[in-house]
Amino acid sequence: MKKISLITAFALASSSLGAVSLEDAIKGATIYGNSYIRYVSNTGTNDGGQGYSMRFVADINSGNIANSNLSFNAGIFYQHGGTIRAGVNTDDAVNASRVEGGYGNPALTTSGLSTLWARYSFTQSKTEITGGKMRINSPISETTLDRGVGATITNNDMDGLKVTASYYDSWASDTYYLGGIQSAQNRKTNTGNGMAMIGFDGEYGMSKFKVWYANIDKFMNTIFSEYSIGDNYEFKAQIAYTDMYKNAMLRESGKRVWYKFDGTDGAKSRGLYTLQFTMKPINEFATRIGYVGSFGSGYGVALNNQASFSKAGRWWYDNYGDSRNGFAFSGQGGKQDTHINIWYVAMQGKVSIVDLGLDIVGISGKNNFAVSAYKSPTGGKIAEVNAKDRTFFEITPSIDLNITKGAKISTYYAIVFGQINVQRLWTQFSYRF
Protein backbone atom coordinates (compact mmCIF):
# COMPACT_ATOMS: atom_id res chain seq x y z
CA MET A 1 0.00 0.00 0.00
CA LYS A 2 1.35 3.42 -0.95
CA LYS A 3 0.42 7.06 -0.58
CA ILE A 4 -1.50 8.11 -3.62
CA SER A 5 0.33 10.17 -6.25
CA LEU A 6 -0.40 13.83 -6.81
CA ILE A 7 -1.95 13.18 -10.24
CA THR A 8 -4.20 10.38 -8.98
CA ALA A 9 -5.25 12.42 -5.99
CA PHE A 10 -6.13 15.34 -8.24
CA ALA A 11 -8.26 13.07 -10.43
CA LEU A 12 -9.95 11.62 -7.38
CA ALA A 13 -10.62 15.06 -5.99
CA SER A 14 -12.01 16.49 -9.19
CA SER A 15 -14.17 13.53 -10.21
CA SER A 16 -15.40 12.05 -6.93
CA LEU A 17 -15.17 14.64 -4.20
CA GLY A 18 -16.46 17.67 -5.98
CA ALA A 19 -15.18 20.93 -4.47
CA VAL A 20 -12.88 19.35 -1.88
CA SER A 21 -9.41 20.92 -1.81
CA LEU A 22 -6.47 19.12 -3.39
CA GLU A 23 -4.65 19.11 -0.05
CA ASP A 24 -7.55 17.40 1.71
CA ALA A 25 -7.85 14.80 -1.06
CA ILE A 26 -4.17 13.84 -0.80
CA LYS A 27 -4.07 13.73 3.00
CA GLY A 28 -4.44 10.12 4.19
CA ALA A 29 -5.30 8.71 0.75
CA THR A 30 -3.71 5.40 -0.28
CA ILE A 31 -3.57 3.19 -3.35
CA TYR A 32 -2.94 -0.53 -3.28
CA GLY A 33 -3.28 -3.42 -5.70
CA ASN A 34 -1.50 -6.00 -7.79
CA SER A 35 -0.70 -6.91 -11.37
CA TYR A 36 0.78 -9.84 -13.25
CA ILE A 37 1.54 -11.32 -16.66
CA ARG A 38 1.46 -15.12 -16.79
CA TYR A 39 2.36 -17.82 -19.31
CA VAL A 40 1.03 -21.38 -19.07
CA SER A 41 1.80 -24.43 -21.20
CA ASN A 42 -0.14 -27.67 -20.66
CA THR A 43 0.77 -31.01 -22.20
CA GLY A 44 -0.16 -34.65 -21.68
CA THR A 45 -3.07 -36.96 -22.39
CA ASN A 46 -5.60 -35.02 -20.30
CA ASP A 47 -4.72 -31.37 -20.84
CA GLY A 48 -3.36 -29.04 -23.48
CA GLY A 49 -3.09 -25.46 -24.67
CA GLN A 50 -0.64 -22.62 -24.25
CA GLY A 51 -1.53 -19.05 -23.46
CA TYR A 52 -1.07 -15.83 -21.54
CA SER A 53 -3.19 -14.10 -18.96
CA MET A 54 -2.74 -10.62 -17.53
CA ARG A 55 -4.36 -8.82 -14.61
CA PHE A 56 -4.34 -5.35 -13.09
CA VAL A 57 -6.22 -4.54 -9.88
CA ALA A 58 -6.07 -1.20 -8.04
CA ASP A 59 -8.00 0.19 -5.08
CA ILE A 60 -7.99 3.85 -4.04
CA ASN A 61 -8.96 4.57 -0.43
CA SER A 62 -9.63 8.09 0.84
CA GLY A 63 -8.69 7.38 4.46
CA ASN A 64 -10.53 9.19 7.26
CA ILE A 65 -12.05 12.26 5.59
CA ALA A 66 -11.71 15.43 7.71
CA ASN A 67 -11.84 13.40 10.95
CA SER A 68 -15.43 12.41 10.14
CA ASN A 69 -14.83 8.66 10.71
CA LEU A 70 -16.02 8.19 7.13
CA SER A 71 -13.91 6.72 4.33
CA PHE A 72 -14.50 5.78 0.71
CA ASN A 73 -12.96 3.14 -1.55
CA ALA A 74 -13.07 2.62 -5.32
CA GLY A 75 -11.38 -0.22 -7.18
CA ILE A 76 -10.84 -1.21 -10.78
CA PHE A 77 -10.22 -4.67 -12.21
CA TYR A 78 -8.87 -5.75 -15.59
CA GLN A 79 -8.05 -9.28 -16.71
CA HIS A 80 -7.17 -10.63 -20.14
CA GLY A 81 -7.15 -14.40 -20.56
CA GLY A 82 -8.55 -17.13 -18.34
CA THR A 83 -7.35 -20.56 -17.24
CA ILE A 84 -5.46 -22.29 -20.04
CA ARG A 85 -6.89 -25.60 -21.26
CA ALA A 86 -7.08 -27.64 -24.44
CA GLY A 87 -7.82 -25.55 -27.53
CA VAL A 88 -6.32 -22.28 -26.20
CA ASN A 89 -3.26 -20.82 -27.93
CA THR A 90 -0.93 -17.85 -27.54
CA ASP A 91 -2.15 -16.08 -30.71
CA ASP A 92 -4.98 -14.42 -28.78
CA ALA A 93 -2.79 -12.59 -26.27
CA VAL A 94 -2.36 -9.06 -27.64
CA ASN A 95 -6.02 -8.00 -27.64
CA ALA A 96 -5.79 -6.02 -30.85
CA SER A 97 -7.56 -2.65 -30.80
CA ARG A 98 -8.34 -3.41 -27.16
CA VAL A 99 -11.27 -5.56 -28.27
CA GLU A 100 -13.34 -7.09 -25.48
CA GLY A 101 -13.48 -10.87 -25.90
CA GLY A 102 -16.69 -12.68 -25.01
CA TYR A 103 -17.06 -15.44 -22.44
CA GLY A 104 -15.87 -18.78 -23.73
CA ASN A 105 -13.31 -16.98 -25.95
CA PRO A 106 -9.64 -17.85 -25.30
CA ALA A 107 -9.02 -14.09 -25.49
CA LEU A 108 -11.44 -13.53 -22.61
CA THR A 109 -11.25 -9.97 -21.30
CA THR A 110 -13.05 -8.70 -18.23
CA SER A 111 -12.86 -5.20 -16.81
CA GLY A 112 -14.90 -2.80 -14.78
CA LEU A 113 -15.58 -1.26 -11.41
CA SER A 114 -14.40 -3.87 -8.92
CA THR A 115 -15.34 -2.15 -5.65
CA LEU A 116 -17.14 1.01 -4.59
CA TRP A 117 -17.98 1.34 -0.90
CA ALA A 118 -18.24 3.70 2.04
CA ARG A 119 -17.24 2.85 5.62
CA TYR A 120 -18.11 4.45 8.93
CA SER A 121 -15.94 3.73 11.98
CA PHE A 122 -17.44 4.43 15.40
CA THR A 123 -15.42 6.41 17.94
CA GLN A 124 -16.58 4.79 21.17
CA SER A 125 -16.61 1.23 19.81
CA LYS A 126 -14.37 -0.90 17.60
CA THR A 127 -17.23 -1.21 15.16
CA GLU A 128 -17.27 -0.51 11.42
CA ILE A 129 -20.16 -0.47 8.97
CA THR A 130 -19.35 -0.86 5.27
CA GLY A 131 -21.90 -0.53 2.49
CA GLY A 132 -21.69 -0.76 -1.29
CA LYS A 133 -19.90 -3.06 -3.72
CA MET A 134 -17.20 -5.00 -1.87
CA ARG A 135 -15.16 -8.18 -1.77
CA ILE A 136 -16.74 -11.09 0.09
CA ASN A 137 -14.33 -11.77 2.93
CA SER A 138 -15.27 -15.14 4.44
CA PRO A 139 -13.75 -18.63 4.87
CA ILE A 140 -15.93 -20.08 2.08
CA SER A 141 -15.11 -17.42 -0.56
CA GLU A 142 -12.14 -16.14 -2.55
CA THR A 143 -11.35 -12.70 -1.18
CA THR A 144 -9.74 -11.31 -4.36
CA LEU A 145 -12.45 -12.14 -6.91
CA ASP A 146 -15.72 -12.86 -5.12
CA ARG A 147 -17.80 -9.70 -4.67
CA GLY A 148 -21.23 -8.61 -3.51
CA VAL A 149 -23.43 -5.54 -3.21
CA GLY A 150 -24.66 -5.12 0.34
CA ALA A 151 -23.45 -4.22 3.83
CA THR A 152 -21.03 -5.62 6.43
CA ILE A 153 -20.69 -4.88 10.14
CA THR A 154 -17.56 -5.86 12.10
CA ASN A 155 -16.94 -5.54 15.83
CA ASN A 156 -13.70 -6.01 17.79
CA ASP A 157 -14.78 -4.79 21.23
CA MET A 158 -14.04 -8.13 22.91
CA ASP A 159 -10.33 -8.90 23.24
CA GLY A 160 -9.31 -11.62 20.84
CA LEU A 161 -12.71 -11.88 19.15
CA LYS A 162 -13.92 -10.40 15.86
CA VAL A 163 -17.62 -10.63 14.97
CA THR A 164 -18.72 -10.12 11.34
CA ALA A 165 -22.25 -9.91 9.98
CA SER A 166 -22.95 -9.40 6.25
CA TYR A 167 -25.84 -9.31 3.83
CA TYR A 168 -25.47 -9.17 0.04
CA ASP A 169 -28.48 -8.40 -2.13
CA SER A 170 -26.61 -9.74 -5.17
CA TRP A 171 -23.18 -11.35 -5.53
CA ALA A 172 -20.79 -13.02 -7.95
CA SER A 173 -18.12 -15.69 -7.54
CA ASP A 174 -15.79 -14.77 -10.39
CA THR A 175 -13.70 -17.92 -10.15
CA TYR A 176 -16.43 -19.85 -11.94
CA TYR A 177 -17.38 -16.99 -14.23
CA LEU A 178 -13.90 -16.27 -15.61
CA GLY A 179 -13.69 -19.63 -17.32
CA GLY A 180 -16.92 -20.98 -17.79
CA ILE A 181 -19.96 -22.56 -16.46
CA GLN A 182 -21.96 -19.40 -17.05
CA SER A 183 -20.21 -18.68 -20.33
CA ALA A 184 -21.07 -22.08 -21.74
CA GLN A 185 -24.74 -21.28 -21.27
CA ASN A 186 -24.48 -17.60 -22.23
CA ARG A 187 -25.68 -16.46 -18.81
CA LYS A 188 -25.05 -13.24 -16.95
CA THR A 189 -22.64 -13.14 -14.02
CA ASN A 190 -24.86 -11.86 -11.20
CA THR A 191 -26.62 -14.03 -8.64
CA GLY A 192 -29.75 -12.47 -7.18
CA ASN A 193 -30.38 -14.84 -4.25
CA GLY A 194 -29.72 -12.81 -1.12
CA MET A 195 -26.77 -14.11 0.91
CA ALA A 196 -26.42 -13.57 4.69
CA MET A 197 -23.32 -14.42 6.73
CA ILE A 198 -22.28 -14.25 10.36
CA GLY A 199 -18.83 -15.17 11.58
CA PHE A 200 -16.74 -15.33 14.75
CA ASP A 201 -12.94 -15.22 14.51
CA GLY A 202 -10.99 -15.68 17.72
CA GLU A 203 -7.38 -15.78 18.86
CA TYR A 204 -6.35 -16.58 22.42
CA GLY A 205 -2.70 -17.34 22.99
CA MET A 206 -1.62 -20.07 20.58
CA SER A 207 -5.22 -21.11 19.87
CA LYS A 208 -7.26 -19.71 16.99
CA PHE A 209 -10.76 -20.50 15.79
CA LYS A 210 -13.35 -19.55 13.16
CA VAL A 211 -17.06 -20.33 13.23
CA TRP A 212 -19.16 -19.07 10.30
CA TYR A 213 -22.68 -19.58 9.04
CA ALA A 214 -23.93 -18.60 5.57
CA ASN A 215 -27.39 -18.72 4.03
CA ILE A 216 -28.15 -18.23 0.35
CA ASP A 217 -31.87 -17.61 0.03
CA LYS A 218 -33.77 -20.59 -1.39
CA PHE A 219 -30.48 -22.25 -2.32
CA MET A 220 -28.21 -23.48 0.48
CA ASN A 221 -27.01 -23.25 4.09
CA THR A 222 -23.34 -23.67 5.02
CA ILE A 223 -21.55 -24.02 8.35
CA PHE A 224 -17.76 -23.67 8.50
CA SER A 225 -15.50 -24.10 11.52
CA GLU A 226 -11.74 -24.09 12.01
CA TYR A 227 -9.48 -24.65 14.99
CA SER A 228 -5.69 -24.38 15.18
CA ILE A 229 -3.17 -24.53 18.00
CA GLY A 230 0.56 -23.94 18.05
CA ASP A 231 3.07 -21.64 16.44
CA ASN A 232 6.19 -23.17 14.91
CA TYR A 233 4.49 -26.55 15.33
CA GLU A 234 0.81 -26.11 14.49
CA PHE A 235 -2.14 -28.45 14.19
CA LYS A 236 -5.19 -27.20 12.24
CA ALA A 237 -8.56 -28.82 11.61
CA GLN A 238 -11.40 -27.54 9.40
CA ILE A 239 -14.89 -28.85 8.75
CA ALA A 240 -17.69 -27.55 6.54
CA TYR A 241 -21.20 -28.79 5.88
CA THR A 242 -23.59 -27.54 3.18
CA ASP A 243 -27.25 -28.42 2.95
CA MET A 244 -29.08 -27.59 -0.26
CA TYR A 245 -32.71 -26.48 -0.33
CA LYS A 246 -35.18 -28.82 -1.96
CA ASN A 247 -35.52 -27.78 -5.63
CA ALA A 248 -32.76 -25.23 -5.05
CA MET A 249 -32.26 -22.64 -7.78
CA LEU A 250 -30.08 -19.60 -8.29
CA ARG A 251 -31.74 -16.39 -9.44
CA GLU A 252 -30.14 -14.42 -12.26
CA SER A 253 -31.39 -11.01 -13.34
CA GLY A 254 -34.72 -11.63 -11.60
CA LYS A 255 -35.28 -15.05 -13.19
CA ARG A 256 -35.00 -18.44 -11.51
CA VAL A 257 -32.69 -20.10 -14.00
CA TRP A 258 -29.43 -21.95 -14.57
CA TYR A 259 -28.54 -23.95 -11.48
CA LYS A 260 -31.07 -26.47 -10.24
CA PHE A 261 -30.96 -29.34 -7.76
CA ASP A 262 -33.78 -31.87 -7.56
CA GLY A 263 -32.10 -34.76 -5.73
CA THR A 264 -30.79 -36.42 -8.89
CA ASP A 265 -28.72 -33.69 -10.50
CA GLY A 266 -26.93 -32.68 -7.33
CA ALA A 267 -26.02 -33.72 -3.82
CA LYS A 268 -28.33 -32.33 -1.14
CA SER A 269 -25.89 -32.77 1.75
CA ARG A 270 -22.16 -32.11 1.31
CA GLY A 271 -19.35 -32.31 3.83
CA LEU A 272 -15.62 -31.63 3.76
CA TYR A 273 -12.92 -31.77 6.44
CA THR A 274 -9.19 -31.14 6.56
CA LEU A 275 -6.43 -32.08 9.00
CA GLN A 276 -3.01 -30.41 8.74
CA PHE A 277 0.18 -30.42 10.79
CA THR A 278 2.76 -27.69 10.09
CA MET A 279 6.38 -27.78 11.23
CA LYS A 280 8.58 -24.69 11.03
CA PRO A 281 11.73 -25.48 13.03
CA ILE A 282 13.60 -22.52 11.50
CA ASN A 283 12.48 -19.41 9.63
CA GLU A 284 14.00 -20.67 6.38
CA PHE A 285 12.15 -24.00 6.22
CA ALA A 286 8.60 -25.30 6.75
CA THR A 287 6.71 -28.52 6.05
CA ARG A 288 2.96 -29.16 5.91
CA ILE A 289 1.45 -32.64 6.11
CA GLY A 290 -2.28 -32.95 5.57
CA TYR A 291 -5.36 -34.93 4.67
CA VAL A 292 -8.67 -33.86 3.12
CA GLY A 293 -11.75 -36.06 3.26
CA SER A 294 -15.47 -35.77 2.63
CA PHE A 295 -18.78 -37.00 4.02
CA GLY A 296 -22.41 -36.80 2.98
CA SER A 297 -23.33 -37.27 -0.68
CA GLY A 298 -20.92 -34.63 -2.06
CA TYR A 299 -18.06 -32.30 -1.17
CA GLY A 300 -18.95 -29.01 -2.94
CA VAL A 301 -19.30 -26.75 0.12
CA ALA A 302 -17.80 -23.37 -0.89
CA LEU A 303 -18.47 -20.51 -3.31
CA ASN A 304 -15.35 -21.40 -5.32
CA ASN A 305 -12.82 -24.18 -5.77
CA GLN A 306 -10.34 -23.13 -3.06
CA ALA A 307 -11.89 -20.90 -0.38
CA SER A 308 -9.72 -21.15 2.76
CA PHE A 309 -9.38 -24.93 2.93
CA SER A 310 -5.98 -26.45 3.69
CA LYS A 311 -4.52 -28.20 0.64
CA ALA A 312 -1.40 -28.54 -1.51
CA GLY A 313 -0.58 -28.95 -5.19
CA ARG A 314 -1.16 -26.48 -8.00
CA TRP A 315 -2.89 -28.22 -10.92
CA TRP A 316 -5.50 -30.67 -9.61
CA TYR A 317 -7.95 -28.08 -8.25
CA ASP A 318 -7.20 -25.34 -10.82
CA ASN A 319 -7.08 -26.96 -14.26
CA TYR A 320 -10.32 -25.15 -15.14
CA GLY A 321 -11.09 -21.47 -14.62
CA ASP A 322 -14.65 -22.13 -13.53
CA SER A 323 -14.18 -23.97 -10.21
CA ARG A 324 -15.13 -27.26 -11.83
CA ASN A 325 -12.65 -29.22 -9.71
CA GLY A 326 -11.96 -28.47 -6.07
CA PHE A 327 -14.54 -27.59 -3.42
CA ALA A 328 -17.08 -25.31 -5.18
CA PHE A 329 -20.81 -25.96 -4.85
CA SER A 330 -21.07 -25.57 -8.64
CA GLY A 331 -18.36 -28.10 -9.50
CA GLN A 332 -17.83 -31.84 -9.61
CA GLY A 333 -18.10 -32.03 -5.82
CA GLY A 334 -21.72 -30.92 -6.10
CA LYS A 335 -22.78 -34.02 -8.02
CA GLN A 336 -24.80 -36.69 -6.26
CA ASP A 337 -22.82 -39.50 -4.58
CA THR A 338 -19.31 -38.04 -4.96
CA HIS A 339 -16.47 -38.36 -2.49
CA ILE A 340 -12.82 -37.34 -2.40
CA ASN A 341 -9.67 -38.30 -0.50
CA ILE A 342 -6.52 -36.17 -0.63
CA TRP A 343 -3.23 -36.55 1.20
CA TYR A 344 -0.32 -34.18 0.77
CA VAL A 345 3.16 -33.12 1.85
CA ALA A 346 4.32 -29.58 1.03
CA MET A 347 7.78 -28.21 1.77
CA GLN A 348 8.96 -24.60 1.52
CA GLY A 349 12.50 -23.30 1.89
CA LYS A 350 14.17 -19.90 1.56
CA VAL A 351 17.71 -19.13 0.42
CA SER A 352 18.48 -15.41 0.24
CA ILE A 353 15.94 -13.92 -2.24
CA VAL A 354 14.88 -17.33 -3.56
CA ASP A 355 11.89 -19.33 -2.26
CA LEU A 356 11.81 -23.03 -3.10
CA GLY A 357 8.82 -25.36 -2.83
CA LEU A 358 7.85 -28.96 -3.43
CA ASP A 359 4.25 -30.27 -3.28
CA ILE A 360 3.41 -33.98 -3.36
CA VAL A 361 -0.30 -34.85 -3.51
CA GLY A 362 -2.38 -37.99 -3.92
CA ILE A 363 -6.05 -37.79 -5.00
CA SER A 364 -8.55 -40.65 -5.00
CA GLY A 365 -12.23 -41.37 -4.40
CA LYS A 366 -15.44 -41.19 -6.38
CA ASN A 367 -14.46 -37.74 -7.58
CA ASN A 368 -15.87 -37.28 -11.11
CA PHE A 369 -12.69 -35.39 -11.96
CA ALA A 370 -13.01 -33.09 -14.99
CA VAL A 371 -10.24 -32.78 -17.58
CA SER A 372 -10.13 -30.68 -20.74
CA ALA A 373 -8.61 -33.23 -23.13
CA TYR A 374 -8.44 -36.90 -23.96
CA LYS A 375 -5.95 -38.05 -26.60
CA SER A 376 -6.37 -41.67 -27.56
CA PRO A 377 -3.31 -43.80 -28.39
CA THR A 378 -4.53 -43.98 -31.99
CA GLY A 379 -4.62 -40.20 -32.38
CA GLY A 380 -8.28 -39.54 -31.65
CA LYS A 381 -9.50 -35.98 -31.33
CA ILE A 382 -9.28 -33.91 -28.16
CA ALA A 383 -12.55 -33.79 -26.23
CA GLU A 384 -13.67 -32.53 -22.84
CA VAL A 385 -14.39 -35.44 -20.51
CA ASN A 386 -15.28 -36.25 -16.92
CA ALA A 387 -12.84 -38.87 -15.68
CA LYS A 388 -14.81 -40.67 -12.97
CA ASP A 389 -13.33 -42.33 -9.91
CA ARG A 390 -9.73 -41.49 -10.77
CA THR A 391 -6.68 -42.08 -8.58
CA PHE A 392 -3.71 -39.93 -9.50
CA PHE A 393 -0.75 -38.03 -8.08
CA GLU A 394 0.77 -34.57 -8.50
CA ILE A 395 4.40 -33.65 -7.89
CA THR A 396 5.09 -29.94 -8.30
CA PRO A 397 8.43 -28.20 -7.65
CA SER A 398 8.29 -24.39 -7.58
CA ILE A 399 10.63 -21.44 -7.33
CA ASP A 400 10.03 -17.75 -6.57
CA LEU A 401 12.64 -15.06 -7.19
CA ASN A 402 11.91 -12.00 -5.04
CA ILE A 403 13.38 -9.21 -7.16
CA THR A 404 12.36 -6.25 -5.02
CA LYS A 405 9.72 -5.60 -2.38
CA GLY A 406 6.46 -6.51 -4.11
CA ALA A 407 8.02 -7.74 -7.38
CA LYS A 408 8.74 -11.41 -8.07
CA ILE A 409 9.13 -14.02 -10.77
CA SER A 410 7.39 -17.32 -9.99
CA THR A 411 7.59 -20.67 -11.79
CA TYR A 412 6.32 -24.16 -11.15
CA TYR A 413 6.25 -27.39 -13.13
CA ALA A 414 3.41 -29.78 -12.27
CA ILE A 415 3.74 -33.47 -13.10
CA VAL A 416 0.47 -35.41 -12.82
CA PHE A 417 0.45 -39.18 -13.29
CA GLY A 418 -1.61 -42.27 -12.56
CA GLN A 419 -5.11 -42.37 -14.04
CA ILE A 420 -4.68 -38.72 -15.09
CA ASN A 421 -1.69 -37.65 -17.20
CA VAL A 422 -0.70 -33.96 -17.43
CA GLN A 423 2.37 -31.73 -17.38
CA ARG A 424 2.08 -27.99 -16.78
CA LEU A 425 4.70 -25.23 -17.01
CA TRP A 426 3.48 -22.07 -15.25
CA THR A 427 5.50 -18.86 -14.97
CA GLN A 428 4.51 -15.37 -13.87
CA PHE A 429 5.91 -11.92 -13.21
CA SER A 430 3.90 -10.10 -10.55
CA TYR A 431 4.01 -6.81 -8.71
CA ARG A 432 2.10 -5.79 -5.58
CA PHE A 433 1.86 -2.14 -4.58
Q: Classify the helix fraction into a percent range.
A: under 10%
The 3D shape can be described as globular
The computed structural class is mainly beta
| Mean pLDDT over the full residue set | 84
Q: How many helical stretches? A: 3
* Total strand segments: 23
Order of helices and strands: EHHEEEEEEEHEEEEEEEEEEEEEEE
Low-confidence parts lasting 5 or more residues at pLDDT below 50? 4-18, 94-99, 101-107, 179-188
Largest sheet: 18 strands, antiparallel, barrel
Strand content: over 45%
Oligomeric composition of the shown chains: single chain
Report the end-to-end length measured between terminal Cα atoms: 5 Å
Description:
By secondary structure, the protein is mostly beta strands. The chain has three helices and 23 strands. The protein has helices at 6-16, 22-26, 181-184, and strands spanning 2-3, 30-43, 50-61, 70-80, 109-121, 127-135, 147-155, 161-172, 195-204, 207-216, 220-230, 233-244, 249-252, 255-260, 269-282, 285-296, 341-351, 354-364, 369-371, 385-387, 392-404, 407-418, 422-432. The strands form three sheets. The chain has an 18-stranded antiparallel barrel. β21 (392-404) and β22 form a beta hairpin. The longest helix has 11 residues, at 6-16.
